[in-house]
Amino acid sequence: MTHRLLLSVVACGLLVSSCGGEAVRQLPSAGAVALPATAPSPPAGGAVVAPSDRSSDDPQQLREAASESVEVAQPETPASPATPGLRDVAAFVDGHRIAGATTLEHVVMDLDGDEVSEVVFTAVADGRAVVQIAWWGSDGYQVLATGRGGVGRSLTSLQVFDLTLDGNPEVVVEVTAGSRSSLSLWSVRGRGVLLPLQAQGGCHDGSHVYGVVGARILQPAAGVPGVLAASCDDSPLPVRDWSEQRWSWRDGAFRLVPGSVAPVPDAQQQRGDGDRERDDDERDDDEQRDDDDDDDEKKDKKAKAAKKGNGGGQDDDHDDDAPDRAGE
Asked: Which of 151, 152, 101, 157 is nearest to 125 (CA)?
């Protein structure tokens, strides 16, 4: 019995392919990997990385596979500047200066129809009218247009409106200097563009400054562009004999109205004559002060001569003259 059992074991061992053949045939084909029926539970606190067909034994491939599941945050592009608020406008107006000017006037309004307010400044700087316009941008308000106008000592008015009815706002600045008074005109033609509106013909031909002792804007009727009426310098005639000419907006320019020459208005005559009279009075006062100074100087010289004639020494005369020389 014992010998027959041992022989059976030996025979099965020699014929292992035959004894286990059925099991071998039931294995999957070479190279295939059997996956479990259910997915493995993810590690605590970690993300599930999708399986890859790369070998998990290669460190470089592991790094590449891991990088596929990582999303890198990109920096956000800065947003466009917001529309300026009242504080932005107020801060800019309070801090803005024009060199050579002591007083500034300003107007805040949308000049180009983009629903963002621009700021128009004007002042008298170094004896002339100055206009500056600031637009809003990524760096806040920046002055992008500047213009210089008529001669003056003080600012009378600043107006911004569509004088020509062409859809572009005009900037009108009035300045005075004694008997002198003038209007300076510009047109805003888009961002950073300030165009002088020059006269075509007449006594102010080629200039965007109208008037000598005064200028006016006339509105003939609703829906009609304004007309400029400005005085001319007809020296050496007296101011009451000076003339006034008119310019109307035609074909993109202020052109002289034929036959529009007329005497300057009475108010301008009176202002011109009155200022001339004040100038004459001031000149008389200056001459009187000069005469008084001459009289005082003559008296001082007489007093010194009398002192020397009464036996005053050289040292005394030197002492009297020393302050005079020091002041020269």
From this structure: 101
**Residue 186's pLDDT is what?**
98
- β-pairing verdict for 199-200 and 253-256: parallel
- The set of residues, in sequence order, having a beta carbon less than 8 Å from that of 81 and lying 6+ positions away, is 136, 137, 138, 140
Antiparallel, parallel or unpaired: β 118-125 and 105-109: antiparallel
Q: Is 8 helix (H, G, I), strand (E, B) or coil?
A: helix
From residue 197, give the alpha-carbon distance in Å to each of 94, 245, 258. 30, 16, 19
User: For position 34, what pLDDT does the model report?
Assistant: 41
What burial class does residue 210 get, using C-beta atoms within 10 Å of its C-beta: 0-12 exposed, 13-18 middle, 19+ buried?
Answer: buried
How much is the pLDDT for 80?
43
Closest CA to 109 of 187, 169, 193, 186: 169
**pLDDT value at position 21?**
40
Positions of the chain with pLDDT lower than 70, given as ranges: 1-81, 266-298, 304, 307-328
Cβ(184)–Cβ(194) under 8 Å? no
Q: Could you tell me which residues come within 8 angstroms of residue 173 by beta carbon, excluding any fewer than 6 positions away?
A: 122, 129, 131, 149, 150, 155, 157, 158, 159, 183, 184
Distance separating alpha carbons of residues 305 and 311, to the nearest angstrom: 10
Identify whether the C-beta of residue 247 lies closer than 8 Å to the C-beta of residue 255.
yes
With a CB cutoff of 8 Å and minimum separation 6, the contacts of 11 are: none
Would you state the pLDDT for residue 58? 64
pTM of the predicted structure, to 2 decimals: 0.60
| Residue 66 vs residues 35, 111, 270: alpha-carbon distances, Å | 21, 57, 93
Nearest to 120 by CA among 181, 198, 167, 187: 187
167: closest CA among 249, 102, 240? 249
Read off the pLDDT of residues 78-127 as tens digits, 9 standing for 90 and up.
544 578 999 999 999 999 999 999 889 999 999 999 999 999 999 999 99
Among positive and negative, which fits the CA dihedral 36, 42, 43, 48?
positive
